[in-house]
Every structure is written in structure tokens, then in C-alpha cells.
Amino acid sequence: MLSPEEKKYISDRAYVPEHILNLMIPISKGEPSLTGDYIYFSKDNWIIFIGYPLSRDFVPEDLKKTIDSVIKKRQPEYVWLIAPEIPDSLAPSCRGRGSDQYYKLELSGLKPKKDLIRLVRRASKDLIIEKGRSISKEHTELISEFMKKEKPNPLIREHFLSMQEYVRQSETAAVLNALDKKDRLSAFYVVELGAADFATYVVGCYSRKNYVPNASDLLFSEMITLAQNDGKGYINLGLGVNEGIRRFKKKWGGIPFLRYEFCEFRPSGGHTDIFQMIKRLGPKL
Q1: 3-class DSSP state for residue 104?
Q2: How many other C-beta atoms can be found within 10 angstroms of the C-beta atom of residue 229?
Q3: Where do the domains of the chain lie, and which CATH numbers do they carry?
Q4: How many CA atoms, within 13 angstroms, populate the side-chain half-sphere of residue 77?
Q5: Which of 211, 231, 197 is nearest to 14 (CA)?
Q6: Contact between 111 and 202 (Cβ < 8 Å)
Q7: What is the pLDDT along the chain (285 residues), one digit of tens a residue?
Q8: Where are the alpha helices (DSSP H) in the chain?
Q9: Residue 92 DSSP label
């Protein structure tokens, strides 16, 4: 159990979404712990280790020592690790690997391009933005529509399916809804404001049945306003994922700023199947 002082320490120094307790606790369903300068989440026979130190430079050897210490203490069957770099000594144990980059949008001095402003103004003629605090049946229908068309991998699928419970539990989550003239949900964003210095884009969906052009651009503009009004310095836009998503984030001024690597392994040395691990771990970022 984290103390109030530890929770504040984490919030004040967070710089990746996985540092945000209000986001990770309901999504992972794990118990957070602070060891040295690292956070991890654990439950039953697994650990999610966030290998981004809160207040010092990243050193792969230091990360490996800390993980070894936690494994010795907790003796998990499964470990899910994200970090700027996977330590060389740990790499041979990884049975699932992936890499990407976090994107960020600096808010200080931000001036969107004129063509983006025109797109936002055009969309605002057909849509009304409403700030909500829940995921309704309309939202889940858009999520189902998204998954049927895009057929995301199991990790992304579980991430979207966790939104209703996450928003219900997080006091710092905001749902930005774009409603058409018939009061139908055309698109939505989920934004997390729990970190001291930044807002986090969590997920977004738009409807093909109630489609309105440039709804995503209007929501992005509203997310900027929301973050600025909350005193944030930047928005963590999450991972690049694919070329289309990267292109959209760059269009608004997002830039890659931090490496993301993940590794999943079994400390006992056995083979870990990523799909079985997702079933055991539940939804993750």
C-alpha cells in the first residue's frame, strides 16, 4: 500500500502514462508498489514493471538489479516490463518483444497551423463538444464498431474494453464527446489529467454511422484546451502504433520524445505465450 507521500512523489515526477496511478490501477487491476525510483503493479502471480525511473537518469544495469530484487521478493510467474531500453542481460529471457516511441505535444507557445484551425471551425458547425465522466452504451457501441473494422491485437482490444471501468474509477479521467445535431455521439476522446505536469490521451473512437468530417481534429483541439486549462505543460499522446496514427499526431505538432520497449518473460525460464499472458494479466496499456 502506497502512502500519501509516495503517491504525491509519483504524481509530481510522472512523465509516462504508466506512472499515473489513477490510470494504471483500474486498467491493470494490480496493487502499485514503489521500489527505489521505480513503480510496479502486482497481483496473484504476475508483475507489471514500469522501467522509467521517476527522478534520475535511466541506467539499464540499475533497472536489472531492481527487477531481480522484486522478483526475488515477489516470486512472480509472469513479468511484463516496459522501459526505454531492455537490459542486455535480460534480453535473452524475453519471449515477447516490441518497440515504439512516445509522442508529446508541448503546450507552451503552441500555434496550430491555419489549415487545422479551418478544419476545427468547419467541424464545430456540425458538432457540439460535451465533457463527460462516464462511458455509456453509445461509447461501447463505437468501441465495438472500431474493433470489428480494425481487428486490433488482443492487447489493444483489452485496453479499449477496460475504458468503462477505468473511467468509472478514475477521478481525474475526462471524456470529451462530439455530438451531432441530432444529439448522437459521433466521436469521443478519453483524457487522463492525473499527472502533475501533463495530460494523457488515452483512447479515441469515431462513428462511421454518425460520421462527421474532422470530428477527431475538433476533439484534439478541445483536448488541448482542457490540458491548458488544467495547467499542464504538455500532452503525452501515447505511442506511435502505426503510420496513420503517427501522421495525425505529427500534423498537430506531436513529436517523438522517448523510446518505448517491452519485454514479457517468465523468471523460471519457461516459455510465455503473449496471448495467454494477456488473458492472465487482464487489460494493459
Answers
A1: strand
A2: 9
A3: 4-99+260-281 (3.40.630), 104-257 (3.40.630.30)
A4: 10
A5: 197
A6: no
A7: 899 999 999 999 999 999 999 999 999 999 999 999 999 999 999 999 999 999 999 999 999 999 999 999 999 999 999 999 999 999 999 988 999 999 999 999 999 999 999 999 999 999 999 999 999 999 999 999 988 888 877 778 888 999 999 999 999 999 999 999 999 999 999 999 999 999 999 999 999 999 999 999 999 999 999 999 999 999 999 999 889 999 999 999 999 999 999 999 999 765 445 445 444 444 333
A8: 4-13, 21-28, 60-74, 114-124, 137-150, 154-161, 163-169, 215-229, 243-251, 274-281
A9: G
Judge contact between 159 and 23, C-beta under 8 A: no
Residue 106 half-sphere exposure toward CB, CA atoms < 13 A: 7
Is residue 203 within 8 A of residue 237, CB to CB? The reply is no
> DSSP state, 91?
G
Q: Which of 20, 51, 26, 17 shows the shortest CA–CA distance to 239? A: 17
Local structure of residue 19 (DSSP, 8 states): G
The angle formed by the CA atoms of residues 212, 213 and 214, to the nearest 5 degrees, is 115
Bridge partners of residue 170, in order along the sequence: none
Strands 78-83 and 46-50, sheet pairing: parallel
**pTM across the whole model:** 0.90
Let me know: does 16 contact 258? Beta carbons within 8 Å. yes
Check if the beta carbon of residue 67 is closer than 8 Å to that of residue 52.
no
